[in-house]
Amino acid sequence: MLQSKIFAKLAKEDPKDEQSLNARLLSRAGFIEKAMAGVYNFLPLGSRVLHKIENIIRQEMDAFGSEILMPSLQPKENWEQTGRWKEFDVLFRLKSMHAFEYALGPTHEEIVTPLAKKAIMSYRDLPVAVYQIQTKFRDELRAKSGLLRGREFRMKDLYSFHASQDDLEKYYSEVQRAYSRIFERLGLRAILTEASGGSFAKYSHEFQVVLPSGEDEIFICEKCGLAKNKEIFSSPETEKCSNCGQTSWKRENASEIGNIFRLGTKFSSAFNVKFLDSEGKEQLVVMGCYGMGTTRLMGVIAEMHNDENGLIWPQNVAPFEYHIVPLFSKDADLRKKIEAAAWKIFSTLQKQGIEVLLDDRDESPGVKFKDADLIGIPKRVVLSEKTVEKDEVEIKGRAESKAGNMKISDFLKHAAG
Amino acid sequence: MLQSKIFAKLAKEDPKDEQSLNARLLSRAGFIEKAMAGVYNFLPLGSRVLHKIENIIRQEMDAFGSEILMPSLQPKENWEQTGRWKEFDVLFRLKSMHAFEYALGPTHEEIVTPLAKKAIMSYRDLPVAVYQIQTKFRDELRAKSGLLRGREFRMKDLYSFHASQDDLEKYYSEVQRAYSRIFERLGLRAILTEASGGSFAKYSHEFQVVLPSGEDEIFICEKCGLAKNKEIFSSPETEKCSNCGQTSWKRENASEIGNIFRLGTKFSSAFNVKFLDSEGKEQLVVMGCYGMGTTRLMGVIAEMHNDENGLIWPQNVAPFEYHIVPLFSKDADLRKKIEAAAWKIFSTLQKQGIEVLLDDRDESPGVKFKDADLIGIPKRVVLSEKTVEKDEVEIKGRAESKAGNMKISDFLKHAAG
Q1: ipTM score
Q2: In degrees rounded to 5, what are phi and psi of residue B39?
Q3: How far is B73 from chain A (nearest CA, A)?
Q4: What's the pTM?
Q5: Which residues in B202-248 belong to E strands, given as ranges?
Q6: How far A82 CA lies from chain B's nearest CA (Å)?
């Protein structure tokens, strides 16, 4: 892709109306643009990172269920049936001109449960699970944390249906391990944290990333690493670690990047979703749900992976594999040579399906390097008067200080890998 | 994927509350499920077809602009600035509990134009274009055409920005050709149709597919094939074809699967989006927009590709490449042999990244064939007592009557290509 076409003039300063680190880093570098409080445009760079995050999640989730797509417009009646039309505090309630009323989906139990009712008849249909990656809406009072808390945001939500609590437990543990794999692939250290289980389960589990700007508070056992959300924590003096028995806790601010939840029969009883067991007896289906915010993940990755000059993406989610930065000479002939070499590298890599961003702009080396630092593609390929004279490029790591020159032909072979 | 896990009991009869052919075909076969009027769940089969349609569009659109993602929640002020807060007849207007008002995006000129304003300074930034594939909302009075007219639906929308009308015209023609390529890849014969251009252009162009259930009426020149939407057509007696001069017209019902539109400076003037031309003079940016409904495309493909037994997907958008249908013998040993062969084929193909649906259900051959006909995967691989004894499979085309047997080892080589 050409840097002149990514639809983003990089801001020279921090955006004044953004308080959060993630929104400042991502806006300055042209990944996102604020449409209004809590609502963002994902520009070409941001859209690419979001796709990568969502595809990593998709790859891991395909082993757990089939992908579906449920609607944002949801019938009011379904939300009344679970009692959440009035109770759900951040629910957007939408009135049509034509006398209909809708909930604007903040979550999808009210849709997936009646759907499951049509698909599940007998124990032979269980277990079964479906997931989606989709846009959610919440009527939040405050939205000052950038991508960490949006009024419109994207989520992966997985719902599982089981014949017994035991079967749910087994599946729940497997999803828990898959979540850890996903966060590892995304370059995040997530802490498994016990949290409130609602009315039907003792605990749920959250995956928390320690972040100064995180909206959650967690207490981490200094001996075994088990963590508890403040909402279910008594006090550091009296609380005993349920895992190792110690009472030594560290308090941290954290941001929740995933949660897994035993729903039990809360929603299957609201919608009367039953199956015939192997003895022909009717039983309520046992459910679990498993969420992961994909736009929030982008915000958390940004907050974790940066330095004073800008972002430093983990390779797995970087918008491009290589950033090609030709430094244009004032000498017309040399400039032509540099341009030709840059375009040759760009088109050769693109043809091989390697993702490359080419800084084709007519800017000074200083501006180009500053912008490249802001964008944070980990592998940078610099062409200058010096390198082109020797048919070389300079390979630079965004994170590391070490750099090295390489023959262009060798680099092309190396990149094709 | 296993057919027992696709979260859809196939309905044995037409769904009673669906009047449209596409919704009947797609619901019966388990691709979609109606959440309420004009709002659908896309089940595993439907979600796969939708992804394929959207990926074909993405492949063609990447040559025209960068992919972005704009929000559904849009500020009321932007819609007031274009005068469309009151004028836009199917706009969902959403009130927050916190004194905000939003438009729920039916289209994105009100978002993309202020965004472009930040990215475009000089003629050197032009032309530039961005597109997205995203969910749209329209507060339609009637929604009885299944996926052809939804209250919530998905669309690709591309927006282009130019320094001059001439540059727009050139780009417009190129998009027009790309649209034709997309529809061809999707197995649709689209008729380029002149339609109303709104207040700033003489004509826009629609791509129409002749369909008895289509909500549009078009008149097609019987000599040269040029078509006009009824909205800009006088009468078959007096209207002369602007292309060939003839006055012989055929009336057809049709469904619009794409439209391309010269916006001119309608939106750039509303948001004062200007650029400095090469002489340093300020000029309004000239815009075009190009829509394509991806869920509607799925409905139109369903209406065009079916027979009395169900759907027949074009290979490019079929949910799977192969449908493996083992017919279980009553003889336990033979059944084991058939099951083992089916699983071997299934896992071998899956490992090679070939998309396969395996009918693992314990149903009779009659039920399995009936359901396979409804689903409409074009290539079917049947295993039965007769074939397995000879280490063979029977290859059947969904559309054609010809079928043939093949050694399993030969089939696996053939499928691996």
Answers
A1: 0.96
A2: -135, 125
A3: 7
A4: 0.97
A5: 203-210, 216-221, 227-229
A6: 16
